[in-house]
From TrEMBL:
Keyword Cell wall biogenesis/degradation annotated: no
Pfam families listed in its UniProt record: Fungal_trans_2
Protein name in UniProt: Uncharacterized protein
Molecular function per GO: DNA-binding transcription factor activity; transcription cis-regulatory region binding
Species annotation: Pleurostoma richardsiae
Length: 498
């Protein structure tokens, strides 16, 4: 095997008990391997999915050699080309940092996805490389042609996969990485919405099965996590005409919360399986709360687009208000130490230690998302609802004001940025942009703009988000009029997902 390919494979850090039984690759330990020699590699990811890989090395005098991995489990051929080496290394060294760290730097779900899923499913493998290549081009200030080619190849494989519903978990993870590409490129919303619609087709089909055990098996532990992430993206696109079918489906099938609980009962001590398990009740509670907040946030945006003066519309707002009041008690629960710490940060307590563990990080993000949802509610909800609809006074809820919510989001964001410096986890683009738009404090606004400027190395979308915020500030100062963000985007090259 050529040294470049061998080094690429070595850099993946395989261990026999987590996926590839690498000892069966001994035939490829030297460079004098004959063309066409193949060896068997067994895949066992610890779930109920086993496959068999035939690895064939096309040896030659140039760097054009490749390793083809054909997995019978997924029915897709994965070909490792020599030109994949750089984006592969970039993914494993840099892009995995975008995954939320659960307990240590080695405990990373993006590493798990690549070694246990990406190597046996071509659409996923290609989507991972497309995303990595796009970020690599951004870092090097080079052309994105290679990334675009990889993206087109990955999307074609995804949409042409006739058995996509047969391996739901792999399909949803593939959609996720293609959405990451769309988010990074910040060039329109059509591709983003198309991918979400495709994911909704798959998920609706899963829940039509009706049996909890079957749904759990089809989604898998990684699929459940990705489904929560996708629900957040579904809501983000609501302002651009996305019908939020995925959120509607999840709202109609609350059994998804039981699936979260069931997948959280893992007992494996294998550190490579840790990223996909929720071993504690606290972590499972965070995932449930995140999914519920995503649904509520998407509902605010959808209802905001629905401008009708009728009882059904008013009743929907009243129900949403009730849900936000209920979840407030859980997000701010003082009996949960991590939630109590997050509240201290939000309220401006300067004596909170900078370091934040995984649970504290999750709780701070949940609280920021909650305040973001409150802002949306107060912006879009009618000033008052008829008493026939609700006995509550929705015109003056017991919540912080919009300005106070923005300040709390910024305090939480600042604390996270201090606890995770030089990391893409240190910035929440959509929530922080929303806070920057709503704050009237020049010091806070200056910090937000600086945070976006500092984070620009992590993606071209962050530069565009900063430029959009600067444009918002300019328009608000000059016109003193309500802001229409999508319209402002049209004047900056077109809409994009924050």
């Amino acid at each position: 095997m050529p040294e470049d390919v061998e080094g690429m494979l070595d850099s993946m850090g395989f261990e026999a008990d987590i996926g590839l039984l690498w000892d069966s690759m001994s035939a490829f330990a030297t460079n004098d391997v004959e063309t066409g020699v193949s060896a068997s590699i067994t895949v066992n990811d610890g779930q109920e999915r086993r496959g068999h890989i035939e690895a064939t090395v096309d040896a030659g005098p140039s760097l054009a050699s490749s390793v083809s991995l054909g997995a019978t489990a997924a029915g897709q051929m994965v070909t490792m080309r020599s030109e994949d080496r750089e984006p592969l290394q970039h993914y494993l060294s840099t892009m995995v940092q975008f995954a939320k760290i659960r307990s240590s730097a080695a405990d990373n779900i993006y590493c798990y996805i690549f070694t246990n899923m990406g190597l046996t499913h071509a659409p996923l493998y290609e989507s991972i490389l497309a995303w990595a290549a796009l970020h690599l081009a951004h870092v090097k200030s080079s052309t994105t042609a290679d990334a675009e080619t990889r993206y087109q190849r990955a999307s074609a494989l995804l949409f042409d996969d006739l058995d996509a519903a047969g391996h739901v978990e792999l399909t949803l993870v593939t959609v996720w990485f293609l959405l990451q590409y769309e988010l990074f490129s910040a060039k329109g919303v059509d591709g983003f919405i198309r991918l979400l619609s495709y994911a909704a087709d798959i998920v609706e089909g899963v829940f039509q099965v009706g049996h909890l055990s079957d749904i759990k098996q089809q989604l898998g532990p990684v699929g459940v996590r990705v489904l929560m992430w996708l629900s957040a993206y579904d809501g983000r696109a609501a302002s651009f005409g996305n019908p939020c079918r995925l959120l509607r489906c999840l709202k109609m099938h609350p059994s998804v919360y039981n699936i979260i609980d069931n997948h959280g009962q893992g007992t494996s001590v294998d550190p490579m399986r840790a990223p996909i398990e929720f071993a504690t009740a606290e972590l499972r509670a965070c995932l449930r709360l995140a999914l519920r907040l995503n649904i509520l946030k998407g509902s605010c945006l959808l209802l905001g687009r629905w401008r009708d003066d009728n009882m059904e519309h008013d009743a929907a707002w009243a129900a949403l208000y009730s849900s936000l009041q209920t979840i407030k008690e859980e997000v701010e629960d003082p009996k949960v130490p991590a939630a109590k710490l997050a509240m201290r940060v939000a309220e401006g307590d300067m004596n909170v230690p900078t370091a934040a563990n995984t649970l504290e990080f999750n709780r701070m993000q949940l609280l920021a998302t909650y305040y973001s949802t409150i802002v949306l509610y107060m912006q879009h909800c009618p000033a008052a609802l008829p008493t026939e609809v609700t006995d509550s006074t929705l015109a003056d809820p017991s919540w912080p004001s919009v300005r106070d919510c923005a300040a709390r989001i910024i305090r939480l964001s600042r604390h996270v940025a201090l606890s995770r410096p030089n990391s893409p986890q240190a910035i929440w683009p959509q929530i922080l942009f929303q806070a920057g738009v709503e704050t009237d404090d020049p010091i806070y606004l200056s910090w937000v703009l600086g945070a976006f400027a500092q984070a620009e190395a992590w993606g071209p979308n962050l530069r565009k988000t900063r430029q959009l915020l600067e444009r918002v500030i300019e328009v608000r100062r000059d016109l003193k009029a309500p802001l229409d963000i999508p319209t402002l985007m049209d004047g900056m090259g077109g809409p994009f997902i924050l």
